[in-house]
Amino acid sequence: MAISGGGTGGHLFPAIAIAQKVKEMSPESEVLFVGAEGKMEMEKVPKYGFTIKGLWISGFNRQSMMKNISLPFKLISSLTKAMGIIRKFKPDIAIGVGGYASGPLLWAANRKGIPTMLQEQNSFPGITNKMLAPRAKKICVAFDGMDRFFAKDKLVKTGNPIRENIRLIEKTTARKKTGFDPNQKTILIVGGSLGARTLNEAMKAHLDALLQSGVQVLWQTGKLYYDQINAEIGERLTDKIKITAFIDDMDAAYGAADLVISRAGALSISELTYLGKACILVPSPNVAEDHQTKNAMALVETGAAILVNDKEAVQQLVPKALEVLQDESQIEQLEKQAKNLAMPNAAEHIAQEIFKLVN
């Protein structure tokens, strides 16, 4: 099996979860990853015990037209290398999970008559998957209504694979692990790395209200912003508001929280629904086709999440969070509806579809 894509964790980690499940179900299977040189997959994939080949490929740069001069050469290079990979590795199936590298690989596989499958994490598909869809045998999706973009007879709703070892730690235990009072209400705020700026500004703007509320806050600032935020407000923080550049133990962080504030990436949404967490989603505006808003609305429309727009977050996010936190019936309803949307066996379902095509 060849599996390709990446560039972001939202593409890469589902791919790793699929590969792990295939190996679990069929230990003799060989798996080869194909990624984009210089992207995170080239570093991350080997740490999970898989081999990866890199292509010289990138997307169209809308900010600097000069940087697009090399695109034709990159495309020719990647298509040529992808053909070589397919000839040498001879996969029974090629799977694309989104990201530029999956384009050349699945094109090469199709040229050789090898069946291809797509896994689309978002409620609005990326350009690469839309281009590859007409020749794909199956398309695994996580949201309803994807027949707006893909042929209905190819669609299989599987959900998004998440890390195998994710678990929900009991609340009292989790709060002790994170250094919080087991009996106090707690908010977790996670905005990724680049996506954290607006959420950080919202937290700073309402720091007084947070301090006066007595609510506990575990606040992941992102590595880019930690030093600045610590310099600005570090002296004002109490033991009830903890800031950190990155959270290593996400299981404990999720377990400690009564309410999670997060961006609306597909991977985050899959974890929040799997764990049944009440959440406020703030979709990032800096993503293709505004797909995070579409992801969030899939939860909001079923009562599984609350949405605050990015442009309104600085004013509204913290007051809304404090309001929701005081309404236990609303928290319970959000948790229940989130759990109803979970698809915990996504990786296994996708692996089964892979074996059907191969066999």
Compute the average pLDDT.
Answer: 93
DSSP helical segment count: 15
For this structure, the CATH topology of the largest domain is: Rossmann fold
CATH class of the largest domain: Alpha Beta
Cα radius of gyration in angstroms: 21 Å
Determine the fraction of residues in helical runs and give it as a percent range. 40-55%
Total count of domains = 2
CATH superfamily of the largest domain: Glycogen Phosphorylase B
Distance between the termini: 13 Å
| Class by SSE composition | alpha/beta
Regions with pLDDT < 50 over 5+ consecutive residues? none
Q: What overall form do the CA principal axes indicate?
A: globular
Strand order of the largest sheet: 3-2-1-4-5-6-7
Number of extended strands? 13
- Percentage beta strand: 5-15%
Largest β sheet strand count, sense and barrel closure: 7 strands, parallel
**Could you say what the CATH architecture of the largest domain is?**
3-Layer(aba) Sandwich
Order of SSEs: EHEHEHEHEHEEHEHHEHEHEHEHEHHH
Which SSEs are present, and which pair or pack?
Layout: E1 2-4, H1 9-25, E2 32-36, H2 40-47, E3 51-55, H3 71-89, E4 94-96, H4 102-111, E5 116-120, H5 127-132, E6 138-141, E7 155-157, H6 171-177, E8 186-190, H7 197-205, H8 207-213, E9 216-220, H9 226-233, E10 241-244, H10 250-256, E11 259-262, H11 266-275, E12 279-281, H12 291-300, E13 306-307, H13 313-325, H14 328-341, H15 346-358
Parallel strand pairs: 1-2, 1-4, 2-3, 4-5, 5-6, 6-7, 8-9, 8-11, 9-10, 11-12, 12-13
Helix pairs in contact: 1-15, 3-4, 6-10, 7-13, 11-14
